[in-house]
Amino acid sequence: LMDNDKDEKIDLICKEKVAFVTLGAGNPVPYFEKLKEAKIIAIPVVPNLKLAKRVEAKGADALIIEGMEAGGHIGKLTTLSLMTQVVPEINIPVIAAGGFADGRGLAAALIMGASGIQAGTRFYASKECTAHINAKKKIVEAGDTDTEITGYLRGHSVRGIKNKMTEKYIELEKEHAPYEQLHDLIAGTSRKAPIDGNVEWGLVQAGQSLSVIKALDSCEEIINNMIKEANYALKKASDFLN
Ligand SMILES: Cc1cc2nc3c(=O)[nH]c(=O)nc-3n(C[C@H](O)[C@H](O)[C@H](O)COP(=O)(O)O)c2cc1C
Q1: Helix/strand/coil for 214
Q2: Domain 6-124+215-241 adopts which CATH fold?
Q3: Whose CA is nearest to atom 5 of ligand 1?
Q4: In the chain, which residues fall in CATH 3.20.20.70?
């Protein structure tokens, strides 16, 4: 919803009758009616309880709560605090996102009452992902402390893998550099890394759960492993309690 041509995109989505659409980075409410008329399931991404209640009241079919562990544009709350506080207050399906990279995370989300998870970073490191191999390799090589947030002070936070660009950005931010200078540094970085392969001056958007990502697996392998691990984790937790 940050795109200037969002209205045209929504019209195209309605025309093509896609099964469902997730809406983020803007106000999704004005589009609910059109999507409903076209029988398309609308799933907005929300960063807090107030917005979760609002989109539910306005007709969202399900919602995604995304914690600040996530890769890309982020809010301020963590996934655990969102699951704790949003799930009991909402009656439509809640999908948890941010920091899920294996089956134990899936099991944890289900135990917290979520209806499912959305994972981004884990699938960046997949065989099918069309991003530049340099960017995909960065995800596999990176560990738990290797991400940085740019734009936090401007209220436009984006999490990605630390590199020369993020170091320079933080340095400029500390010096209270003018907005234009920060903007020039960040402009085009979401193309430079995944498309051009420049992982030092572009941004490999990624979440914090990186250490468990050890290889570029196929999506089928990732999902099957997650389900297998989640089943094991759920059984272990239940045995432990009993
Ligand atoms: C490279 C990358 C690009 C993303 N782009 C978008 C986007 O365009 N729109 C959106 O709603 N979420 C976007 N996300 C967020 C994901 O949909 C998802 O919520 C997030 O990755 C979950 O956290 P995780 O990265 O820890 O799995 C992006 C995430 C990544 C890693």
Answers
A1: coil
A2: TIM Barrel (3.20.20)
A3: 72
A4: 6-124+215-241
> Does ligand 1 have an atom closer than 6 angstroms to the CB of 121?
yes
Residue by residue, pLDDT tens for the chain (242 residues) are 989 999 999 999 999 999 999 999 889 999 999 999 999 999 999 999 999 999 999 999 999 999 999 999 999 999 999 999 999 999 999 999 999 999 999 999 999 999 999 999 999 999 999 999 999 999 999 999 999 999 988 888 999 999 999 999 999 999 999 999 999 999 999 999 999 999 999 999 999 999 999 999 999 999 999 999 999 999 999 999 99
* DSSP H helical ranges for the chain: 6-16, 32-37, 49-57, 79-86, 103-111, 121-124, 133-141, 164-174, 179-186, 189-192, 219-241
Amino acid residing at 213 = I
Minimum-distance ligand 1 atom for the alpha carbon of 159? 31
